[in-house]
Structures are given as structure tokens and as C-alpha cells.
Specification:
The complex is a heterodimer. Chain A is mainly α. Chain A has 2 domains: 1-32; 73-314, no CATH class. Chain A contains 11 helices and 5 strands; from the N terminus they run αααββαααααββαααβ. In chain B, the strands form 3 sheets. Chain B has a 5-stranded antiparallel sheet with strand order 1-2-3-4-5. Classes of the chains: A mainly alpha, B alpha+beta. Chains A and B meet through helix 1, helix 2, helix 7 and helix 8 of A and helix 1 of B.
């Protein structure tokens, strides 16, 4: 009888162990199936994303061989002046405006990010950052020249990633601004707010008021600047963030975006582009802020869709 | 009593089978994750290759025996330039030099170094070395490419040339690259398993146009 009890207990223990093993095996098989499904759908998504981006950017000349009219306006903020020592000295007035715009753009883009809030407690941090960036860009070019390369200016925006700023706080800020993060597809849109964007030298602490919160992620600063030397901002094609930096008012920016889309539709339907440009300028010239001269804003309308320059197309990969 | 003995035997057998299955599962999982890691890491690097069409950047993509001759690698190494994006250590940010090779300890290695134009003294060049896979017997490459721009109609078979080496003279990328690794065998006298990793490069100057 005692043996029977012993055997029964042994069988029960073994059954429990066996059941645990079976559970483990089933869990593993389930995980394996999920993993296989994930790999099939997502494994190459990043690879495909970047290849598509390269296709879109690198083969432009093959897809569109028509020569484009030369213009002195750009959809993004031009850093060609800021990063070129000689031009800086020649255009001090324009440089001042460009630096001011750059600071406003930084606030529009990063006001909701913890790294920026922390750094921006110091009111002059953006002035210091831009001043150091100009100095270090000059030093970078000297170093490239010393290595035997014939390069007298920064020719690619990505070269800015090579620049290190001398003080750790500025370098930390600069690193995060250039790095950017992946952005959620649904959270990528800037919140349409009737509130004005945060003004210069003031970071809004209340997360409800900021343009883009931490959880949405943020774009790299490089996505919004260009090395093209154009001194003007092309309002017709500029991304929403650039418009917010220029016009400082979300309601005005929304009106601009609606109106330029209407103008695009009209121009495509045979409206004269110069007439449309004039109408665009008449509607919004009065909204140009006092600190910005009119010759820095361009209202030219052409048959290019303003949506094609929207920064939704240049989000970071997954 | 006999019935108990039979039941115990069956249970023990099942228990042993279960243990063996778990062991095999664990091995397969480790191997699978290692391979997926290699695949994903290489895909993330190779998807950012510097395109040959960009004249402002320093393009290079070639196989070379130099590392084997220097005693660093076994067999040919693949040397290429790629965009490493923003990095805390700016030496490794933006365009960098990547080298994929098999070292003498049978490890598949990816070494990243700054481009020489950003570094004055070659002797102090910083190096970032990653061990992608261990127990690798052999590393080989296969490059497939069309002679010219190719248009592929629906269901048409691709007619691509093949080469095992990619020489520095070719200032273009292949259309497809396969990286094959022969794994070390666990049993003596047997040949280890072979793993192939394939990568497609659409950003080349002789593109393949699909019409499907």
C-alpha cells in the first residue's frame, strides 16, 4: 500500500514536470510562429524604406531631365550663408535674419523635447550654439583642406554631423537636434493649434501647449535646412515647420497652406502663375513679422505641388 | 506493479524526448537570432551605401585581398563607404569606411573607421569592430549585375552576370550581392552548414526597371 502511494506521488510529480515542459514547448512554438511572421513582414522594411528614399533622392536627374529655373528662394532654411565665412562677412544683415530664423525653427521643432527644455533654460544657449557652429564649421573646412582635399565650403548637409562643438552642453544639444528620432505615423502631424507657437527665448513648460510632444518623436534639424545659397524662404513650398518659424502664428500658417493648395489647383487648371504669385503675396505680405524684411520671403507660385515638399515625406525610417 | 513500471517508462521516455526537443529548440533559436542579427545589421549598413552617382561623396565598394596579406583576415574582405548617420562619436558619424571580413579566429567582423579625409594621422585611426558571427569557416561573396540598364517584363527571367570579386575599377554597385558564410561543423569530418545573405542595391547607375 505504501509502495502504491509512493508510485502515485511520483507519477503526479512527473506529470506536473511533463506538463510544464509541454507548456514551455507550446510557448516556444507560438513565439516561433509570431517571430517568423514578424520577419516576413518587417525584416526588410527598414532596408526597403532607405532604398526607396535613395531612389527618390538620387535619381531625380534621370526622372526629371527638364532644366529647372534658377531661383534665389528655397523651401527650407538656407544654411549656405551661415556656414560660409566669406559670405557671412559680406552679408551681415542677411546673416542676422538667418540666425534669427534658425533659432525660431529650432524652437518650433524641439520645444517639446526634454533635451531642449533643459538646455533652453539658459536663454542664450541658441546664440552660443550657432556661434560655435560657425566657428567649428570653419575649423572643419581647415581640417579637410589640410588632408589635401580641394574643398572650400561645406557641400553636403551630412557633413554637419562630423562637427563637434567644444562645450559638452552645446554638443549634447547639437547632437540631439541633428539626430532626430523615428516618428509615429499617426503622431507625426503637428498639432493644429490656434495658440501661437512659443516665442523666442521662452520654452513652454505645459506639454499641452507645445507643438510636438516627446512621445511623437521629432525630425532631425537637417530635414529643414539646405545648403543652397538662396536668401529667401519660398512660402509656396516651405514645410509647415518653416512657415511657423517665419510667420509665428499657427492660424496664419494654416491659411497659407490652404491657400497655396488652392493656388496650385488653379495654376494646374491654366491660371497664370504670375497672377497666382501676385494674389499669394497680396494675401499674406502683411503677415510677415516686423523683424523679417520682405526681401527674405518669396511668394512665387509654380506648377509644383506644395504637398511634395511637405516634411511628411522625409520622416526618419522605422 | 508491472503497469506502474510501464507507465513510468512511458513518462520517462516522453520526458527525455521533451528535454531533447527543448535543447534542439534552444539551439535553433540561438542560431536563428544570430543569423537574423547578421542579416539585419548588414541590411542596415548596406542600405546606406554611398551611391556611385553622388560625385560629392567618396564612393568605394570593392573586394580586396589586402587584409589577408596583412594577416588580419582570411580570404577577401569587402570594403565600402556608407552613411552611418549621426553618432555621438563624430569620428563615426556621416560617411564612414566599412570593412567586412573573416578574421583568423573564425569570426565574421564588421569594422568601421572614419574616412581618411577626416583624419590626419592614419596610425591613430579610431576603429569600431563588431563581431557579427562566430564559428565561421569561410566567407565568400557573389555579385550579380546587368551589363546595362535592364528592363524586365512580367515573369521574365533576369539575365544577370555573376562575379566573385568586385574590383576597384568599377565605379558602380552590383544589382544584387550575396554574402555566404560556411559555418563550422559540430562534428569532425563533416562540412558545416552554409548560410546566404542577399542584398539588393537599387541605387545604382545601371538600374533594373521592373514592369510587373
Amino acid at each position: 500500500m505504501q509502495i502504491l502511494t509512493f508510485v502515485t506521488i511520483t507519477i503526479m510529480v512527473l506529470t506536473i514536470i511533463t506538463y510544464a515542459r509541454l507548456e514551455y514547448y507550446l510557448d516556444f512554438e507560438t513565439m516561433k510562429a509570431h517571430y517568423a511572421s514578424y520577419m516576413e513582414k518587417s525584416q526588410r522594411s527598414d532596408f526597403n524604406y532607405w532604398q526607396k528614399k535613395y531612389y527618390d533622392t538620387d535619381n531625380v536627374s534621370q526622372k526629371d531631365s527638364k532644366p529647372k529655373p534658377v531661383t534665389d528662394a528655397t523651401a527650407k532654411l538656407s544654411f549656405g550663408l551661415i556656414l560660409n565665412k566669406q559670405k557671412r562677412e559680406e552679408n551681415k544683415q542677411h546673416l542676422h535674419h538667418h540666425l534669427l530664423l534658425a533659432k525660431k525653427l529650432m524652437i518650433v521643432l524641439f520645444a517639446g523635447q526634454p533635451f531642449f527644455k533643459e538646455a533652453h533654460k539658459n536663454n542664450v544657449v541658441l546664440d552660443r550654439l550657432l556661434a560655435e557652429l560657425m566657428d567649428q564649421a570653419d575649423a572643419y573646412l581647415e581640417m579637410v583642406k589640410a588632408s589635401g582635399k580641394k574643398q572650400d565650403k561645406i557641400t553636403r548637409l551630412r557633413e554637419l554631423e562630423k562637427i563637434t562643438l567644444p562645450t559638452p552642453d552645446l554638443d549634447n544639444l547639437y547632437y540631439h537636434m541633428l539626430q532626430g528620432t523615428a516618428r509615429d505615423e499617426d503622431g507625426a502631424e503637428i498639432q493644429a493649434s490656434s495658440e501661437p507657437p512659443p516665442v523666442l527665448d521662452e520654452v513652454v513648460e505645459d506639454e499641452d501647449d507645445v507643438l510636438r510632444s516627446e512621445k511623437d518623436g521629432y525630425d532631425s534639424f537637417l530635414d529643414y535646412i539646405t545648403l543652397k545659397p538662396g536668401p529667401k524662404i519660398r512660402v509656396y513650398l516651405a514645410p509647415k515647420e518653416i512657415l511657423l518659424a517665419v510667420f509665428e502664428d499657427a492660424a496664419t500658417v494654416d491659411k497659407i497652406m490652404t491657400f497655396r493648395q488652392e493656388l496650385y489647383n488653379d495654376v494646374v487648371n491654366d491660371m497664370n502663375a504670375d497672377t497666382a504669385s501676385q494674389a499669394f503675396a497680396n494675401a499674406f505680405r502683411k503677415d510677415i513679422p516686423h523683424w523679417l524684411t520682405e526681401d527674405m520671403v518669396d511668394f512665387t507660385v509654380r506648377k509644383t505641388s506644395p504637398n511634395s515638399y511637405n516634411n511628411k515625406n522625409i520622416k526618419k525610417g522605422p | 506493479m508491472s503497469l506502474t513500471a510501464v507507465l513510468l517508462m512511458i513518462l520517462m521516455f516522453f520526458y527525455r524526448e521533451s528535454m531533447e526537443m527543448n535543447r534542439l529548440n534552444d539551439e535553433a533559436a540561438i542560431q536563428s537570432f544570430q543569423e537574423r542579427y547578421v542579416d539585419n545589421r548588414l541590411a542596415s549598413v548596406l542600405s546606406n551605401l554611398i551611391p556611385a552617382t553622388d560625385n560629392e561623396r567618396e564612393f568605394f565598394f570593392k573586394t580586396t585581398p589586402d587584409f589577408a596579406e596583412a594577416g588580419i583576415a582570411v580570404g577577401d574582405a569587402l570594403v565600402f563607404g556608407y552613411d552611418n548617420s549621426m553618432r555621438w562619436d563624430r569620428n563615426f558619424a556621416s560617411d564612414v569606411n566599412g570593412t567586412l571580413y573573416l578574421d583568423k579566429y573564425k569570426r565574421l567582423c564588421l569594422v568601421t573607421t572614419p574616412l581618411l579625409k577626416h583624419w590626419e594621422d592614419e596610425s591613430t585611426l579610431p576603429i569600431h569592430k563588431e563581431i557579427l558571427l562566430e564559428h565561421v569557416e569561410e566567407l565568400s561573396f557573389l555579385f550579380r549585375f546587368p551589363a546595362d540598364t535592364m528592363k524586365v517584363e512580367n515573369q521574365q527571367k533576369l539575365d544577370l552576370k555573376e562575379e566573385k570579386y568586385w574590383t576597384p575599377g568599377k565605379k558602380l554597385l552590383p544589382a544584387v550581392m550575396f554574402i555566404s558564410v560556411q559555418l563550422e561543423s559540430k562534428k569532425k569530418g563533416e562540412v558545416g552548414e552554409k548560410r546566404n545573405f542577399g542584398f539588393v542595391f537599387p541605387n545604382r547607375d545601371h538600374p533594373i526597371e521592373y514592369n510587373i
